[in-house]
């Protein structure tokens, strides 16, 4: 299959997997704390990747490990905890929509830090995307007083972390295999994630049924939604561009919102309009 066709296949697969991640986080939070969800997500992904990709670590040159560490921090470690903490207060579908700002942040950081050039339509797209996210958050706060929409800021910070990650990969790790990058990332993260888990009450509540059910959801999230998905994502970045790869966030909210409907989540009409504005902004910013 040609790379032009293959990149769209990767994009669709990632949308399905990552779009399902938000509901898995929500289900995991039923029996686990946000820190436990973030830690277990990383630990399960680490074990899986080290089993299948340990031999590829020798392909990583010594001078590249500092970038492996940076991409693990921004691409996985920080966002894993931020999304889990945010979803203790806001709906999974709202979290997925705000995650759609990742391509805009990728573009902004690419221009400010990595030397990419802005175009007029991209600037317009950024402003439209920011307008949509403001509308989504403010209306959600008005109509859902039981939810603390200040936690939406954590999702915005996570999307900035993702933007840093894709620009670093494209500039400094483009010559490494996706499996090497991903395995290296999670080897770096295993000990910090386990340390965070150790200082929670996880081992005291491990025998509870609801905790065990939540662990199963996070196991799927870690292995499929984090481990396998990161391999596909890094491959997509290498065969296309950072902005195209992060355009997967066009489709993620559709999948996430569908899961949200099954779990009795609902957006207000104005929030729907805000989400639509965000996607228009992302589309304009991604056009060449």
Description:
There is one protein chain. This protein is mostly helical. It has helices spanning 3-28, 34-53, 65-86, 92-98, 102-112, 120-143, 152-172, 178-198, 202-205, 209-239, 242-246, 252-262, 269-286. It has one domain. It is found in: Membrane. InterPro entries: AA-Vitamin_Transporters, EamA_dom, EmrE-like. The chain crosses the membrane at residues 7-25, 31-53, 65-85, 97-116, 123-142, 148-169, 181-203, 215-236, 243-262, 268-286. It is a multi-pass membrane protein.
Strand elements, count? 0
Helix content: over 70%
How large is the share of residues in beta strands?
under 5%
Spans of at least 5 consecutive residues with low confidence: none
* Overall tally of domains: 1
Oligomer: single chain
> How would the global form be characterised?
globular
Order of helices and strands: HHHHHHHHHHHHH
Largest sheet: none
Rg over CA atoms, rounded to whole Å, is: 18 Å
* Number of helical segments with 4 or more residues: 13
Mean pLDDT: 85
Structural class: mainly alpha
- Termini separation comes to 25 Å
Family: Belongs to the EamA transporter family.
Keywords: Membrane, Transmembrane, Transmembrane helix
InterPro entries: AA-Vitamin_Transporters, EamA_dom, EmrE-like
Organism: Flavobacterium segetis
Provide a quick synopsis of the model.
By secondary structure, the protein is mainly α. Helices cover 77% and strands 0% of the residues.
Features of this protein?
single chain, 288 residues, mainly alpha, globular
Element layout with pairings:
Blueprint: H1 3-28, H2 34-53, H3 65-86, H4 92-98, H5 102-112, H6 120-143, H7 152-172, H8 178-198, H9 202-205, H10 209-239, H11 242-246, H12 252-262, H13 269-286
Helix pairs in contact: 1-4, 1-10, 1-12, 2-3, 2-8, 2-10, 3-7, 3-8, 4-12, 5-6, 5-7, 6-13, 8-10
Membrane topology: Multi-pass membrane protein
InterPro entries: AA-Vitamin_Transporters (IPR050638), EamA_dom (IPR000620), EmrE-like (IPR037185)
Protein name: EamA domain-containing membrane protein RarD
């Amino acid at each position: 299959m040609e790379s032009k066709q293959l990149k769209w296949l990767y994009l669709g697969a990632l949308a399905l997997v990552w779009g399902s991640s938000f509901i898995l986080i929500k289900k995991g939070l039923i029996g686990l704390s946000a820190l436990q969800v973030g830690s277990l997500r990383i630990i399960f992904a680490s074990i899986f990747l080290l089993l299948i990709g340990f031999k590829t670590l020798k392909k990583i040159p010594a001078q590249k490990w500092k970038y492996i560490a940076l991409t693990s921090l921004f691409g996985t470690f920080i966002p894993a905890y931020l999304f889990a903490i945010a979803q203790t207060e806001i709906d999974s579908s709202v979290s997925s929509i705000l995650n759609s700002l990742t391509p805009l942040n990728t573009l902004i950081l690419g221009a400010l830090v990595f030397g990419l050039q802005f175009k007029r339509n991209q600037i317009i797209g950024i402003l439209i995307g920011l307008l949509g996210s403001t509308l989504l958050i403010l209306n959600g706060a008005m109509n859902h007083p039981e939810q603390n929409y200040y936690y939406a800021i954590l999702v915005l910070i996570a999307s900035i972390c993702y933007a840093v990650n894709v620009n670093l990969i494209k500039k400094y790790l483009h010559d490494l295999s996706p499996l090497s990058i991903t395995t290296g990332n999670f080897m770096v993260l295993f000990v910090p994630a386990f340390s965070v888990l150790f200082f929670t009450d996880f081992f005291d509540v491990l025998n509870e049924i609801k905790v065990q059910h939540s662990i199963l959801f996070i196991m799927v999230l870690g292995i499929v939604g984090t481990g396998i998905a990161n391999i596909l994502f890094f491959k997509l970045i290498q065969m296309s561009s950072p902005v195209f790869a992060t355009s997967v966030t066009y489709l993620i909210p559709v999948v996430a919102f569908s899961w949200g409907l099954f779990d009795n989540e609902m957006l207000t009409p104005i929030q729907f309009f805000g989400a639509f504005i965000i996607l228009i902004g992302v589309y304009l910013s991604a056009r060449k």
